[in-house]
Amino acid sequence: MSVPCVCVPREAGEATRRELAAADLLDTDHEISVEDDSIYIPVTDPTAAAARVDADVVVRDAPERDAQVTPADLLGYEPGYERLGDIVILDEDDDERAREIAAALVESDLPVETVVNRASKVKGELRVRDWDVLVGEETETVHREYGHAFALDIARVYFSPRLATERHRVASQVREGERVFDMFAGVGPFVVPMAARGAEVVGVDLNPDAVAYLRENARRNGVAERVTALEGDVREVSGEYENWATRIVMNLPHSADAFVETAVALAGDECVVHYYDIQHEDDPFGPGVEAIRAAAEPEYEVTVETERVVRSYAPHEVNVCLDVRLTRRDQ
Questions:
Q1: What angle do CA 313, 149, 27 make, to 5 degrees?
Q2: Which end of the chain lies in a sparser environment, N or C, as judged by fewer CB atoms within 10 Å?
Q3: Separation of alpha carbons 327 and 81, rounded Å
Q4: Rounded to whole angstroms, how far apart are CA atoms 319 and 284?
Q5: What is the pLDDT of residues 51-80, one digit of tens each?
Q6: Kindly report the CA angle at 273 between 183 and 235, in degrees rounded to 5?
């Protein structure tokens, strides 16, 4: 049967599938297919799907999907969850409901090894959270994203699968020979794909476990020779990279403004800064732009190239990204 399908490169298939599923645009009655280096994902609304993932939609034959048992089939409702490798993450306040969902996940046809429920918010300087392990024991997994594999332990490091599309958007801008500085690198979801595109990348994190995984993931993905991992407060360990970077990633949205002066010190004569922030929906971009201008002017000309809402964060609050170009003025 001929159905509309989003066509993306094979390495982008899983992240695109998750994005379409999150938007309820995935046609689950037909099979996903692979041909050469492309993957074809059936969708229910071709116009909305094309806009959601910025990809071409084609009409092609797709076999009907064999009926699989889903958690919704067993529960009678669609539960909310995230998948990170073979770990499924819940965010349920009711323990009984969480355990009911966990049991259904295991009984379904989903590949699941561990089910956890969030037991705290992200906390502390190391950005970790507590988990209630409902099924299984192992909190370490390997997550695959746009053709790269990331080992991590959710009990020891911070990682959000929800940001896969945003990370791919930023990494896709990198060109061979760039010098990139990731000020809050975690396990390397920005660092690794940027190094894979031919950049020299420095990643810093305060969490020693995150830095260990960053080094492991650089080796795992074959980019270790282009990656330098530093442990510590970026304000204290980045001195030798002043005036070095052509691109800077600042993904610490609750407090990135406290690090803007360090970012400006790291910037070379021409540098793009990807600045992440969480602000009220009435003025989501103004505070970030103001912080960058206050630190960079008059030494640099500041040009805001992109203002992007990444996702909703809380009622009336949004997670945003500013892509800002700094161009050093002649002295």
A1: 60
A2: C
A3: 43
A4: 8
A5: 888 889 999 998 887 767 889 989 999 999
A6: 30
